[in-house]
Write a structure and sequence with these properties.
55% of the residues lie in helices and 1% in strands. It is an all-alpha fold and 293 residues long. The chain starts with 7 loop residues before the first helix and ends with a strand.
């Protein structure tokens, strides 16, 4: 239906290679949140920005491994909207961490920054105007998202329990919005990014659910079905690979556990997480020791 720059087989190979970096990192975030909030124990695996995460490399990989395809009006709207919705999550979580000092918010806000980066990669790839531009924290071009941000910040400022419920509400909405927009796109790069953002949001939902449960609070989903919600909270955190082997430190790898660095990481890029099964995850270059994905 659309003119493709790369042939179909190359696109399919790219889909396998570019199992995205978001989910594996967010697995750590939600697990860290569970340990920190429910058990109050120290952890050395706190997710934080690291020197070997390079958003430009992620963008280069998205451009090189996925075809440029014509965009419909619905797809343009989806890219612009999700860019700002990921900013909403990031900004609210920063505000909730500043208000309550609760670690789960800072952990997940870091992951939301990577979501924002990925959306900007797509926006730049398709030469669209970034709706965020120079807007600071809490400032949105989309009027509905601006109103939602204001409401969520007010609600989350009432108590820690309300703040955690706000986090669950955002992930609930994000999962629903991504599903709606996935249904209206067949572009390989957009689908790949949206699917990984969805997996990340499911992990975030699990983290907020655990923390709310620890506070004795029951969360009822408002945007996804109860069946979908129950499936999310009853299943383990999801792990992913990394787009072209680019992943911050402390991520979990899905690559080979046999000590061989024969996966996707560029020379000199090393992950610090354990491998957890067969596959083609990264290491320290093509022939280096395997330290994670």
């Amino acid at each position: 239906m659309k003119k493709r720059i790369f042939n179909w087989s190359a696109s399919m190979a790219a889909l396998v290679i570019a199992a995205m970096f978001f989910t594996s990192c967010e697995t750590d975030a939600s697990e860290i949140a569970q340990l920190t909030e429910m058990k109050a124990v120290a952890t050395t695996a706190a997710l934080a920005p690291t020197s070997n995460y390079n958003a430009d490399q992620v963008c280069d990989c998205l451009t090189a491994n996925y075809p440029v395809e014509a965009l419909t009006a619905a797809q343009v709207d989806a890219l612009l909207f999700m860019r700002e919705e990921e900013k909403l999550a990031h900004d609210v979580y920063l505000g909730m961490h500043a208000k309550w000092g609760t670690k789960v918010f800072s952990n997940i806000s870091n992951a939301e920054q990577r979501h924002m980066d990925a959306m900007l990669c797509l926006i730049n790839k398709y030469k669209l105007d970034d709706p965020i531009g120079d807007n600071g924290i809490g400032v949105f071009k989309n009027a509905d998202l601006q109103a939602l941000y204001n409401m969520l910040m007010e609600k989350g400022s009432a108590s820690v329990e309300d703040a955690l419920a706000v986090g669950a509400t955002i992930e609930d909405l994000d999962i629903a919005d991504l599903a709606t927009r996935l249904a209206s796109t067949d572009n390989a790069d957009i689908k790949a990014v949206f699917n990984e953002l969805t997996r990340g949001s499911r992990n975030h939902m699990r983290a907020y659910y655990r923390n709310l449960k620890n506070q004795g609070v029951t969360y009822v989903p408002k945007n996804i079905s109860l069946a979908t919600f129950n499936e999310i909270i009853s299943t383990p955190n999801e792990r992913g690979g990394s787009i072209c082997g680019i992943c911050p430190n402390n991520c979990i790898g899905n690559g080979p556990g046999n000590g061989q660095g024969n996966g996707n990481c560029p020379n000199g890029n090393t992950g610090n997480g354990p491998g957890n099964g067969p596959g083609n995850g990264g290491g320290n270059g093509p022939n280096g020791p395997r330290n994670g994905g």
